[in-house]
User: Fold EOG090X088H from Eubosmina coregoni.
Amino acid sequence: MNTQQVNSNSNQVICSGEEAEGKNHFSSVQNHILIYNRIPKTGSTSFVGLGYDLCSKNDYKVLHVNISKNANIMSLSDQLRFAWNLTEWSFNKPTFYHGHVAYLDFTRFGVSSLPMLINIVRQPLDRMISYYYFLRYGDDFRPHLVRKKQGNKMTFDECVKSSLHECDPNNLWLQVPYFCGHHADCWVPGSRWAYEQAKTNLVNKYLVVGVTEQMEEFVAVLEATLPMYFKGALSLYRKGSKSHLRKTNTKIPPKTETLEYFKNSSVWQLENKFYEFALRQFEAIKSRTLNSDLTDKGPQFFYEKIRPK
Assistant:
């Protein structure tokens, strides 16, 4: 039953129950769009698995945006086509898009409605090392698929010592440009302008950005904030079927000298500062949204002094 609590002395009105959930979480909006421009090796496969498991139950569509040749950016014409198609192509129900593509500013294209954005970041060197070993040993998601570096037993430490391109610190430059966007300078390793733009976009353009190291908390925040998509997600995640969907088969921790080598890189320094910035923002959102057991704190505002009576 929908209920409405009214305090006659102060004219405070608090929505509760189904009414609060419906009005505060857009359950009546049929063309609502959520975009997850996922960054490789940040736990994105596990997270997207939740979306596919919940889409029928929560009545929304899930679509994977597949960009040719695994490019991270689109041509200008494709940006325009994607923006128009995304906002004008209606399934008559909410839609969750995901794909490996850098941030796209939809306000540039005159679209009729703007999508809501989410993402996940990971400690940058951990992400890079995970990808390095993933190319050699694969993962438990598709264990029989032969990766392009299959059979290459060189460790990450040995790669760094040999100064090979694959483990060059410039290859860390991915999470900053993903949030910076499609501008050419976003993809210049170590660009301070790109770093500042990425921070601005994270705060102003994204609903919430989680961290791989706190995936459970990220799922809980989304369930509390967007139950139209994520109702039941925390319970599903805790069951374990989606919490570790893709795990690299072999990862060798780097040596201290390898860590020090990367920490002397300006690219690592900016990427790590960006990660720490994202982590602080997520911690702030989490503390205001969730109780210590990750349950939703619920509405923390009300209306009062309503006139005329």
Observations:
- The first helix runs from residue 17 to 24.
- Residues 3-289 form a domain with the Rossmann fold fold (CATH 3.40.50.300).
- DSSP finds twelve helices and seven strands in the chain.
